[in-house]
Design a protein that fits this description.
39% of the residues lie in helices and 16% in strands. The protein has six helices and five strands. A five-stranded antiparallel sheet has the order 1-2-3-5-4. Bound molecules: zinc ion.
Length: 161
């Protein structure tokens, strides 16, 4: 396969793409609480999903507006793995889940809601958390409100609430 180089896309992505991106917007927000940002690392950051699947549904995203893993530096990719482990430890300590879903949807056809800025979902799971509401009504029962979740997890990551 021959690569098709499209350097003009970079300027477009850097202006338009990043400006309209929920992840870039959250990273640049003045108020981490408003943006639900939990922790900022060297090359990645962690935020709460505004539309969580379960309580404590975190997302880890690179600071770079990148759609694919090969668009990241090796150190950024390594940091993502480190942050996945930290997120798991924090969620395990706070919420004692029975398991986790950890993964990425790369590309719109693969289910990515935001396809042009990759992100890893870390979703704590409990036995019985998929109740009839999710199945029948596409509605999820989230027992703890986002603000409380944000404060608890942010504190556990050593951040100021
Ligand atoms: Zn972005």
């Amino acid at each position: 396969m021959r690569p098709l180089f499209t350097p003009w896309r970079m300027a477009y992505l850097k202006s338009h793409g990043a400006r309209d991106c929920v992840f870039c917007t959250a990273l640049g927000a003045a108020d981490p609480r408003e943006a639900l940002v939990i922790h900022t690392g060297n090359e990645n950051f962690i935020l709460l999903n505004r539309f969580p699947y379960t309580n404590g549904h975190l997302m880890i995203a690179p600071k770079a507006h990148a759609a694919a893993l090969n668009g990241l530096t090796p150190s950024a990719r390594r940091e993502i793995m480190d942050l996945i482990l930290r997120a798991q430890d924090v969620l395990a300590a706070l919420y004692a889940p029975g398991g986790f879903n950890i993964g990425m949807n790369l590309g719109a056809c693969a289910g990515a809601g935001v396809a042009d800025h990759l992100h890893v979902h870390v979703v704590p799971r409990w036995e019985g958390d998929t109740n009839f509401m999710s199945v029948t009504a596409d509605t999820r029962m989230i027992p703890e409100d986002l603000d409380m979740t944000w404060r608890r997890i942010r504190e556990a990551f050593g951040g100021k609430p």
